[in-house]
Specification:
This protein is α+β, with helices and mostly antiparallel strands and about 140 residues long. It has one domain: Gcn5-related N-acetyltransferase (GNAT) (Aminopeptidase, 3-Layer(aba) Sandwich), CATH 3.40.630.30. The protein is built from four helices and five strands, in the order βααβββαβα. Strands 1-2-3-4-5 form a five-stranded mixed β-sheet. Strand 3 and strand 4 form a beta hairpin. The longest helix is centred in the middle third of the chain and has 15 residues. The radius of gyration is 17 Å and the shape is globular. The termini are far apart.
Length: about 140
């Protein structure tokens, strides 16, 4: 049985272990700034062990952002990720937020559509990658 808990205290070690298991390119990091500034987060627990996580960031007003839905590899494909997103949606709705955004890779379209998101166009800029200079037309 999986328990879904909103805003539990969760240790950096547990989050880093979860992310290292689920994401090939995970780098150990300190999650405390993220957790202290977010709208909320939801954890999935199996017998008290962390097996899933999702974070909700926000702008302090009408917009929130679903980040890092993550499920431990041996618990994937059991509906846990979908339920984490549902719980995050309800958390966000309960806070009076109007819009919940999510960015994702094309391979995740079906997952997010199943969760109730609709595909829209958006823009993104990688501030640490090789494409750091915005292409802005200049008068000249």
């Amino acid at each position: 049985m999986i328990d879904y808990v909103t805003n539990p205290n969760v240790a950096n070690e547990d989050l880093n272990a979860l992310f290292a298991d689920a994401w090939l390119d995970h780098t150990v990091r300190d999650f405390s700034p993220v957790l202290s500034l977010n709208l909320g987060h939801v954890c999935a627990l199996a017998d008290g062990a962390l097996v899933g996580f999702v974070n909700v960031a926000w702008d302090g007003g009408a917009h929130a952002f679903l980040l890092d839905p993550t499920v431990r590899s041996d618990f994937q494909r059991q509906g846990i990720g979908t339920q984490l997103v549902r719980e995050a949606v309800e958390l966000t709705r309960s806070k009076g937020v109007e819009w919940l955004h999510v960015d994702y890779e094309p391979r995740l379209v079906d997952f997010y559509n199943k969760c109730g998101f609709r595909t829209t166009e958006a823009g993104v800029m990688n501030l640490k990658g090789k494409d750091t200079e915005p292409a802005i037309a200049r008068d000249g």
